[in-house]
Write a structure and sequence with these properties.
The chain has about 625 residues and is α/β, with parallel strands linked by helices. Strand 10, helix 20 and strand 11 form a beta-alpha-beta unit. It is globular, with a radius of gyration of 25 Å.
């Protein structure tokens, strides 16, 4: 495999500096949305994305770097020598890209290029795009994170080594898999506190004037009585403070607008730039002044696979790109469009409760251990106890609510995710009869909870459900939790952790909360990050991500795309009922063939990817009649 560092100008700058780019943003009109005549923005699909791809050597303005890895087979000594040459550190990105394409030019198209030698690009119909889950995490690396040892070792191995089981719409094997670090993740200008400080230094002006020691105090989900929240930070009553606050507010608006460019609508355009740059890396004009590539007509991806949030991105692909991938595969990734975000979390909390019960059925001894951990941490949070808050190696504070977020992993297969969680829980105390928390446990908590390393997940997670309906997400998961607590004390960990309470203490799931920016996570805390998270939660003018009409056009009416989905009945992260509503006749994803199973959890693609991708490929081509 070979990673090609490529980049394009930031969409925001393109919008500000180039009028020709305006048409590439979701141009919206107002259409009837449902029987109640509610209104929602429509998306005008884009035919071609031009003029934004460039190499890093020619950039004169700030940019978002976009990194991706091309995974393909090395079949002979010549191939091996070619790929070794690509690793020459003296090559610039432009030189490396040119050398990469030279292989296909020299092979007279055997690697997917044009047979007449007129175009040294690769054939997109024999490339599969992979969009990973998240948002906020980089793509798995081949070999180390994605096994290619045998055709059954991973979904990628099944695509490249599977002997023709997974083919494009013409029955040809896929020759390349493109693994993209979605913008803001991995090596694609990863969003972290350090980068945000460089981009928007004024946003963090008041951080140093605010005491970091919030002692777990702060917003909601059983807020601790300790710690006084200083939302703005510092004393702003004097002239200097007022000036700093004004500068911070200006930076806050800029940072909010900037992060709004890191959602699925931007990610699919990045994927289109990658496809265009690989297909037509050296654009040529014929004698009549026409773009040779344009004369050939649309050249979409041959296939695309979306895991979890990656599937949400594929729905945006079908909604906003005129020529989406010819074959689309969803694995645990049908977004709950048309379902209000609060209802989404109301449903997900019930699924988290079910997984918590399932965990305790497998490890009944952990019921009392978890209760003891929560009671111990609550005691350290209370000022009246005289105990100090428990500081993690990362600088954050281990509160009871943060500990319960370790339940995020419960959506994986019980054999691995449950066993790992059991190991963490049983490392909590120095001795079984002691309430002294062990250092090993603190290190494990830091390791298992990566929000500090991937703050984009925290900042933008709820926005994946914001679909241009003019409604802010407003910490919907937190609101839903409070609603469940009021209706049923079984959800209240302060109640269930008591020794005389018969209910187990429930974990939290794939949710983000305002308290995470109030000291629990050091990299998410202090004035700047807290204000940014609140601004994004209150933002209501999100652009639409999904368009029912365009999706049905691609899947049903024009049949540009054939699609199949693996939907996991017990999925803790993506509600099964919400997904099923969308694949019914007359609904947005009517043309998607659905494989429903409870053999796998949300991690099915990682646990048995080859089996799943082979099944979906056969379903999409009517070779396997599922559903029967």
């Amino acid at each position: 495999s070979n990673g090609l560092p490529l980049t394009h100008a930031d969409l925001k700058l393109a919008m500000l500096n180039g009028n020709d780019m305006e048409q590439q943003q979701p141009i919206t009109t107002t259409d009837d949305y449902d029987a109640n005549e509610q209104k929602q923005q429509r998306i005008i699909p884009v035919d071609k994305i031009d003029s934004a791809y460039t190499t890093m050597e020619s950039l004169d303005e700030p940019s978002i770097d976009l990194y991706f890895t091309i995974t393909e087979l090395i079949s002979n000594a010549q191939d091996e020598a070619h790929f070794c040459a690509l690793q020459n550190p003296k090559l610039s990105p432009c030189q490396r890209a040119a050398l990469y394409f030279q292989k296909d030019k020299n092979s007279n198209g055997s690697g997917g290029g044009s047979n007449d030698g007129s175009n040294s690009g690769v054939d997109p119909s024999r490339m599969m795009l992979y969009l990973q889950g998240g948002p906020g995490f980089g793509c798995a690396a081949p070999i180390s994170g994605l096994s290619l040892s045998s055709p059954s070792s991973s979904w990628a191995a099944a695509v490249l080594l599977g002997g023709g089981k997974v083919t494009n719409s013409s029955g040809q094997s896929f020759e390349r898999i493109v693994l993209m670090d979605q913008r803001g993740t991995g090596r694609s200008s990863a969003i972290c506190k350090q980068r945000l400080k460089k981009l928007f230094p004024d946003l963090f002006l008041l951080d140093d004037e605010e005491p970091m020691e919030n002692n777990g105090g702060g917003s909601s989900v059983g807020s601790s009585v300790v710690g006084e929240e200083l939302f703005g930070g510092g004393d702003t009553s004097n002239a200097r403070g007022m000036l700093l606050q004004a500068r911070q507010q200006t930076a806050l608006k800029e940072a909010t607008d900037y992060l709004s460019l890191f959602r699925a609508d931007s990610i699919v355009r990045d994927a289109e730039w990658i496809r265009e740059s690989l297909t037509n890396p050296f654009p040529s004009i014929d004698d009549d002044g026409n773009d040779v590539a344009a004369i050939k007509g649309p050249q979409p991806w041959g296939g695309a696979l979306g895991q979890s949030f990656g599937g949400f991105c594929l729905m945006t692909y079908l909604s906003s790109i005129s020529n989406p991938p010819e074959l689309v595969y969803f694995t645990g990734g049908i977004a709950p469009m048309n379902t209000p975000v609060r209802e989404v979390y109301d449903r997900l909390w019930l699924r988290v409760r079910e997984r918590s019960w399932k965990y305790y059925e497998q490890y009944p001894g952990d019921v009392d251990v978890v209760k003891k951990i929560v009671r111990t941490l609550l005691a350290h949070e209370e000022k009246s106890s005289g105990a100090n808050p428990i500081r993690l190696p990362s600088g954050g504070i281990l509160t009871a609510r943060r500990f319960l977020q370790i339940g995020l992993a419960l959506g994986g297969s019980p054999g691995s995710s449950f066993a790992n969680l059991h190991s963490v829980i049983n490392s909590a105390f120095v001795d079984d009869d002691s309430d002294e928390v062990s250092n090993a446990f603190l290190k494990r908590i830091d390791y298992e909870q990566s929000f500090d390393d991937a703050p984009l997940y925290f900042l933008l997670h709820e926005s994946i459900y914001a679909d241009g309906d003019g409604v802010a997400t407003q910490w919907a998961a937190n609101q839903s939790y409070e609603g469940h607590v009021q209706a049923n004390s079984e959800f209240d960990y302060r109640v269930t952790c008591q020794e005389d309470n018969s209910n187990p203490t429930l974990f939290f799931g794939e949710m983000v909360f305002p308290f995470m920016a109030h000291g629990d996570f050091s990299e998410l805390s202090n004035s700047g990050m807290r204000m940014l998270s609140e601004a994004l939660a209150e933002k209501s003018d999100w652009l639409p991500l999904f368009d029912e009409t365009n999706m049905r056009t691609a899947l049903v009416h024009e049949k540009k795309t054939r699609a199949a989905a693996a939907c996991y009945y017990d999925d803790m992260y993506v509600d099964f009922e919400c997904a099923m509503k969308l694949v019914q006749r007359g609904c947005p994803l009517e043309g998607v063939k659905v494989y429903v199973t409870n053999d796998y959890q949300h991690s099915g693609l990682r646990d048995d990817g080859a089996t799943i991708i082979n099944k979906l490929a056969a379903m999409s081509k009517n070779q396997l009649h599922v559903p029967s």
